[in-house]
């Protein structure tokens, strides 16, 4: 399987980077091919340009500003994201990736007869998320309603491929996580990835 692995964290020695490394090593050991896209290391500009916004309903949509990223996305069978949740949301660089790359004629088509969109990322069979939160699980889930899970699963993954297999693994309370808790989470990541077919 070809996996596009996105890392969205500005610090190369971060825990998120170690999760991405664990994901990559586990997948490659299982015979999968991994394309690591480190948004910060590749200096991705998350800002939607005026030209991109003005042409949002043009057909075909002009992806020239992100063409290489679109090619990498279209070549993948699985998409895996690694990032921290900040303020119960995505890092800005990852939000910008969705704004600029998950665009018409790539991730979906506009249905001209109605308000819905037609999914186009049928090549992506698996959409997995590995993330951390600074807050305990009960604040994220019970008080906030798990906004990142809802946004990515319902608002992105399923809109782009209704049959996609979605999975999310989160290490909560990261700010107080011991080395043992972090190590056990990496084991959980490895175990989950070994089930991927």
Shape: globular
**How many β-strand runs?**
7
Secondary-structure element order, as H and E? EHEHHEHEEEHHEH
Give the number of helices. 7
**Low-confidence stretches at least 5 residues in length (pLDDT < 50)?**
none
Which strand order do you get reading across the main beta sheet?
A: 2-1-3-6-7
Average pLDDT metric: 95
Radius of gyration: 17 Å
Judged by helices, strands and strand pairing, the structural class is alpha/beta
How far is the N terminus from the C terminus? Answer: 8 Å
Approximate strand percentage: 15-25%
State the helical fraction.
25-40%
Question: Main sheet?
Answer: 5 strands, parallel
Detailed description of the structure:
- This protein has 197 residues and is an alpha/beta fold.
- Helix content is 38%, strand content 20%.
- It has a five-stranded parallel beta sheet, sandwiched between helices. A two-stranded antiparallel sheet has the order 4-5.
